[in-house]
Amino acid sequence: MRERLAALTGAAVTALAPLSGGDIGLVHRVRLDDGRTVVAKTAKPGGRDTAEVEAAMLRHMAAAGVPVPGVVAVEPGLLVIDAVADQGAPDAADLARVVAAMHGVERADYGFDAATVFAGERQDNRPVTGVAAPAAPWPAFFAERRLRPMAHLAHDAGRLDRATLARVEALAGRLDRWLPARPPAVLLHGDLWAGNVLGDRGRVSALVDPAIYYGHGEVDLAMLTLFGGVGRDFFAAYGARRPLDPGFFEVRRDLYNLYPLLFHVKAFGGGYAGQVGAILDRFGA
């Protein structure tokens, strides 16, 4: 790797240290002889190569004004990004400011111009068209491009039984009962849990490991609560900038969190299948 890094960055590597958080790929902090410190991300042996996709996502977010690590260089199988200060969680108000600003970036339709990745899994971002697209395009997109594909991946991995897969399919066909038909299509980080938020002296230094597309902003808000990441202070500050519609906490949060929970079933199994089952029970699937 040292030779590849030197060729890409134009500087020799003086130190190379592994970083935590490499469940999907391998991550190293790299010191270069020109004084720079960067982060190198590579795929694990046999894993999906997401380097160029992640670079494209980071560049799109940066162009939209979202704080993300700068892309230093990329080639197949190797992404080099700027090292960013990470001194703990930022203040809730500053995270709310950053997320609300990101959700202020809109476009006309849901999805993205290319496939992206969620925790290493391919995300199909094509619009839902033809017979499959009802009068409610957002519930159709979330069903056909998120819930159903991830449920099938979990089933194919042997960690979601056929009966639960059928229940997810049934719920996906009824999402228009609970999700808004045409919410604004805003820029989503897509994998916005606390571990992907870096802070420095109370400020957000960067959002990392994106899974971007354009969709309902509540997708990000839901995931921020999934592992206990944010609380009342965040939502008060976010709501002052972008008021929440009624029903998010009571209804839609659980529906949106089915997607990351299904990924966790696929990747880890265990108790995550029980969480999926509890949500399906709640919505009568």
Automatic annotation (TrEMBL):
Report which superkingdom the organism of origin falls in: Bacteria
Record keywords: Kinase, Transferase
Q: Which SUPFAM superfamilies match?
A: Protein kinase-like (PK-like) (SSF56112)
Keyword check for Protein biosynthesis: no
Give GO terms: molecular function aspect only: kinase activity
What InterPro entries does this protein map onto?
Fructo-/Ketosamine-3-kinase, Kinase-like_dom_sf
Q: Give start-end of the signal peptide.
A: none
Q: Which PANTHER family match?
A: FRUCTOSAMINE 3 KINASE-RELATED PROTEIN, PROTEIN-RIBULOSAMINE 3-KINASE
Q: Which family does it belong to?
A: Belongs to the fructosamine kinase family.
Q: What is this protein called?
A: Fructosamine-3-kinase
